[in-house]
Amino acid sequence: MNIDLNSDLGESLGVWRMGDDAAMLSLVSSANVACGFHAGDPAGILRTLRQAKERGVAVGAHVSYRDLVGFGRRNMDVDSADLRADVIYQIGALKGLAAAAGTTVRYVKPHGALYNTIAHDERQARDVIAAIREIDPGLCLVALAGSPLLGWARGEGLRAVAEAFADRAYTPQGTLVSRREPGAVLHDADEVAARMLRLATDGTVTAIDGSTVRIEAESVCVHGDSPGAVEMARQVRARLEQAGVTIRSFVDSAA
């Protein structure tokens, strides 16, 4: 059994530090690197890319709405032309920095509100898909497991990778519990590791109401900005490897 372990990195901005990229890069197989629209500055992003290169970690563009103040977590109704250009701009910027770091951008994972919106909003979803196809149709798109976005992307010829979240609670319908709701974000590293082992081996997780939800995912995310993120990722990786699950980026099996 193989599964990818990813985290959102490169999100520090100037003197404001977010997460521990160096530590996370020793644990994950894929790094979703900020592109400057929700977080990250060029020097910090470049540093993260160089560290990812040193550790053999696959790199993806963590594109977002243009929302530094809200950390990309505010819903926005962006015009199609603007959204497409914004996504192209962010991927292009990260591609340039990645080239300087001696690595390449292999996939795209939208961030925050954009990620959640395009999971079900077909208009914005198709704008993001079109943007990816325009700049590099060989890029994979990481999307919420079970969402319509996976089918829309595959229908346009993109490789779409289904993703689950280690540190987020699920509804009985298989969607993420809103961050505005109590219990939406999980903090117990041992509990999270046990949940991800069940996901990797059985394909199910326990929803917030105690019911069982089936989640088919190729990749698991541990948010780099969560308190205790490094320990959580460490325990998830250790528990999976102890059970014989190989941690490997999904891009390693890309055609």
How much helix is in the residues? 25-40%
Biggest sheet overview: 7 strands, parallel, barrel
Distance between the termini: 19 Å
Query: What's the shape?
Result: globular
- How large is the radius of gyration? 17 Å
**Unreliable residue stretches:** none
Q: Would you give an account of this structure?
A:
The protein is of the alpha/beta class and 255 residues long. The protein has a single domain (2-253), classed as TIM Barrel (Alpha-Beta Barrel), CATH 3.20.20. 38% of the residues lie in helices and 17% in strands. It has helices spanning 21-25, 42-55, 80-101, 112-118, 122-135, 148-155, 189-202, 229-242, and strands spanning 2-9, 30-34, 58-62, 105-108, 140-144, 160-165, 204-206, 212-214, 219-221, 246-247. The strands form two sheets. Strands 1-2-3-4-5-6-9 form a seven-stranded parallel barrel. Strands 7-8 form a two-stranded antiparallel sheet. Helix 2 (42-55) links the parallel strand 2 and strand 3 (58-62). The protein is globular. The two termini are 19 Å apart.
Could you write a compact summary of the structure shown?
It is built from 8 helices and 10 strands.
Task: Considering the chains and any ligands shown, give keywords for the structure.
TIM Barrel; two-stranded antiparallel sheet; 8 helices; 255 residues
SSE arrangement:
Elements: E1 2-9, H1 21-25, E2 30-34, H2 42-55, E3 58-62, H3 80-101, E4 105-108, H4 112-118, H5 122-135, E5 140-144, H6 148-155, E6 160-165, H7 189-202, E7 204-206, E8 212-214, E9 219-221, H8 229-242, E10 246-247
Parallel strand pairs: 1-2, 1-9, 1-10, 2-3, 3-4, 4-5, 5-6, 6-9
Antiparallel strand pairs: 7-8
Helix pairs in contact: 2-3, 3-5, 5-6, 7-8
